[in-house]
Amino acid sequence: MTHTDTPAPLQQILNQGGIWQARQAPETPLTPARSSGYAQVDEQLPAGGWQPGQLCEIYSQGLGQGDLSLLAPVLAELSQQPRWLLLVAPPAVPYAPALEMLGVRSERLLMVHPKNDKEALWCMEEGLRSGHCSAVLGWIAHPPATAIRRLQVACEESQGHAWLWPGAQPNSAGSPAPLRVQVSRQDARHSSVTFIKRRGRWPGQPFTLPLQQPTLSS
Amino acid sequence: MAGWMYLWFPDLYLHSLDAATPREPVAILDPQEQRIVQLNAPAQALGVRRDMPLASALFLCPTLTTRTLSLSHEQQLLQQRALWAGHYASFISLHAPQGLWLEVGSMLKLFGGLSAYWQRIQQDCEEQHWPVHIATGHTPLAARWLALANAGEPTFARDKLLPRLQALALDELPFSDAQRVALQRLGIHSLKQLLRLPLADVGQRVDVELMNTLRQLKGDASYPLTPFDVPPSFSQHAECLHDIEHRNGILFPLKRLLEGLCGFLHQQQLATRELILTLTHREPPDSVWRFALASPEYRYPELVQLCRYQLERQRLRAPATALRLDVAKLSSRAPAHANDLLAQKGADREHPCTHQHVPQTGLLNRLASRLEAEQLQCLYPTGDPRPECAWHTMSAAEHSTISQLQKAPHVRSHRGHWPFWVLPHPSPCAAPTTLIAGPARLDSGWWDHAPIRRDYYQALLGNQLAWVFRDDRGQWFIHGFYS
Known about the structure:
The complex is a heterodimer of chains A (about 220) and B (about 475). In chain A, helix 5 (about 115-130) runs parallel beside helix 6 (about 145-160). In chain A, about 30% of the residues lie in helices and about 25% in strands. Chain A has a single domain, classed as Rossmann fold, CATH 3.40.50.300. Chain A has about 220 residues and is an alpha/beta fold. By secondary structure, chain B is an alpha+beta fold. Chain B has helices at about 10-20, 40-45, 55-60, 70-85, 110, 115-125, 140-150, 160-165, 175-185, 190-195, 200-205, 210-220, 250-270, 300-310, 335-345, 360-370, 395-400, 405; strands at about 5-10, 25-30, 35-40, 65-70, 90-95, 100-105, 135, 235-245, 270-280, 285-295, 320-330, 375-380, 390-395, 420-430, 435-445, 450-460, 465-470, 475-480. Residues about 335-360 and about 405 of chain B have low confidence and may be disordered. The interface between A and B is large, with 63 and 62 residues.
């Protein structure tokens, strides 16, 4: 299809790739989505779960906001595959007994401590492209949009799962990532979750998510 | 059924240098006589011929690049080919300077017939840009003679091969000058005429040696072949026609060495954990680059990729004129590697098979090629009740070498409220105001010198849910975060 009749400024904006067009969506996704383990979250996600090939940005202020509880069920499921769960620049050490209770197999974890952001992005991309990772998680503060686009391309081509923590607050300029979610803790058992960008749907409203804690009644 | 294949690599030395620059005329000189022994097509087009003295060749073609033939290097090249041929045959015999015999009869079932076998070899040689003449025969000599004349056909049947042999002209065959003269005097110009003579007559009129050769050709006498033994260690070098001035240029000759290495590893059923690349410069000392791998590797595409990453980290001190590849730290292939074949097929799709314990190590090697060993870590639960001791991190290289049994002690951790993140060192804090749950008392570690007595709580610090404790002196610490 040609765009000869599209006014020039609009064409410019489209070329920048900042706008997602519905016709870019594949008619049927290549790989089915994976349930997040929370009915409320599945409802919010466009594909009804975590869709492989879609990079997701997670915004949370400091550790302990409930962002990993949000991912715990899917990570537990992914860790059953004989592939690595790659953690790039994790902000602390995942506590092995907690992983065990969440059902995440700790021997699948591979942690990388890169020297700088460039190296971190390279590791994430390499992890995605190798096909040897069931999921890639990265903590990189304020990565440039070009880097996020690269990651998204790698994610899409490898049909892998990737989550990126780019900082506390989403920047207003937008991001090439198809999913952006903000997580903040409300109280000890609840977090507030907002999907501020969902490819293929309007942004979501904040909702309260009761968290599955890695606890066994004692 | 015995059947032989002869691979003749014409101008072996030339092609080992030449592949990168096929456009300019290049010739190889005999080390003693300063005569041309090998030359490429551009040189031939300018009128240079084999056996021509160097002076005449330079007169015809002033831009001719020449190199002196190194017999030892050509021998080594042939060994590289023999290592490669290890993918195709179990009995290999070197025939210096440029030929290889493979015992093929016993391999046909594996490869699905002689035509398929022949095609595989031809395709493989083409991919590596090795000019080769292939021929098969019911005897080693028949295969060799057909290869020299490039008149091979994929068959071992004597009645099909005989007409092809008979058609060979005598000057295509490796006879001595005296034998040629003698045959010429008898008026014999083709092998057909020669084979028609009674053998005893040949012995009398030409020489006994030729008679024996003909008997070996027919299979009436055996032709002695010495089997090629794989050398105990791997060390091979490649020379460059032009100095390599940029590290990117190293990959090309290195690929050929890696090809040989993979053949070596295949024959020995080994894997390597370290490659040592030595670059020769015009001025000593040589540069030695060591490429350590996080886990043993033996596959060609992986090794090439790793070398590519490793080369990006290196700086070439001065132009290199030759390179040598050695391997250190050979190890046997872990059984996990055998599963790789299955795992790789579905690597980018789903992984329903959960019985395979060790995740793939290919990624480890790739990451390790750019990062330091201590930057890659795996988690190792110990089962100790003390939070500081409940886990270890260990470098991923170490992790991949210990066995699965040692790795997962199958400790069930005791029950409790565990945070996702733990701080490697507890950090002191003020007494928290909002305690959510607790206390959970931990009094443990009497068996070594790091006993602890602590009360653990869940506490809200701002909007972070933290895992805090008070020690027996009343000091508060943050030890982790619920996330």
